[in-house]
Design brief:
By secondary structure, this protein is α/β, with parallel strands linked by helices. The chain contains seven helices and twelve strands.
């Protein structure tokens, strides 16, 4: 099985900042991609998804613009965002107003960086779970009006499911779905909406009005699958809490 790590983008030209932040993130098993130009970073953020985005706002030309525009990017509008300030230009209140979740002031020590990123780790893992799609093949029964159709899933998330059918589903339709997660006794019966469908029988559905017990069971199961792909996720959250208390 191929395992994954959390991923981050660090936008800065400051070698001292990189020297502190990079090993701090890597210690938490967070991969770091470093970008030195605001325009290039803006392009990357449009096409790639990151669990964390760290922006050197005051000492990099265009840095503030990247921070301000981040929430408008479909891929990273919910990424955990860190604003790095130099204490002379942008205030903490302004950075939070532009969408930053965490703010660090230069000069940054290894201890401050460690505490900040440990505190943010739980948010990164929650965001990863939110968009995490687990590939899974299982039978799904679709009930649309008086018509029943059998389908096979290709992946599932906490908010929806992708299916393969022998015929196209009408976009916007709201069928009921019935399925059981593999190797569990968990059975689901819920309403969904067809978000997209093609002529080859592939379709993406968003869950609607999910019973609380079903939602809880699905999230717990996905947590287990995510733990396999991000080994030590639970331990990292526990360690982050310990770091904050200390």
């Amino acid at each position: 099985m191929i395992t994954m790590t959390l991923e981050s983008l660090l936008l800065s030209q400051d070698p001292d900042l990189v020297r502190i932040i990079r090993p701090t993130l890597e210690k938490l098993s967070i991969e770091v991609e470093i970008c030195h130009e605001a325009r290039k970073a803006a392009d990357i953020l449009i096409s790639e998804k990151f669990d964390a985005v760290i922006v050197d706002c005051d000492d990099l030309q265009g840095g503030l613009g990247v921070l301000q525009g981040l929430r408008a990017t479909p891929s990273n509008k919910n990424s955990v965002t860190f604003a790095i300030l130099n204490g002379h230009r942008t205030t903490m209140q302004e950075a939070f107003g532009m969408g930053a979740n965490f703010v660090l002031q230069k000069p940054i020590s290894a201890l401050n960086a460690s505490r900040c990123f440990n505190a943010a780790l739980n948010f990164m893992l929650k965001e990863r779970r939110r968009y995490f799609r687990h590939p899974v093949k299982m039978q799904v029964r679709i009930m649309l009006g008086k018509k029943n159709v059998n389908a096979t899933s290709t992946n599932i998330s906490e908010s929806g499911i992708a299916l393969m059918l022998r015929e196209a589903l009408p976009k916007g339709a709201t069928p009921r779905l019935q399925f059981a997660l593999p190797d569990t006794g968990l059975k689901f019966d819920m309403e969904a909406e067809v978000v997209w469908a093609d002529v080859k029988g592939r379709a993406g559905l968003r869950f609607r009005e999910v019973p609380k017990d079903c939602q809880k069971n699905l999230e717990s199961w996905l947590d287990e699958q995510l733990e396999e792909e991000l080994p030590g996720a639970k331990e990292k959250i526990a360690a982050a809490g310990s770091e904050i208390l200390n």
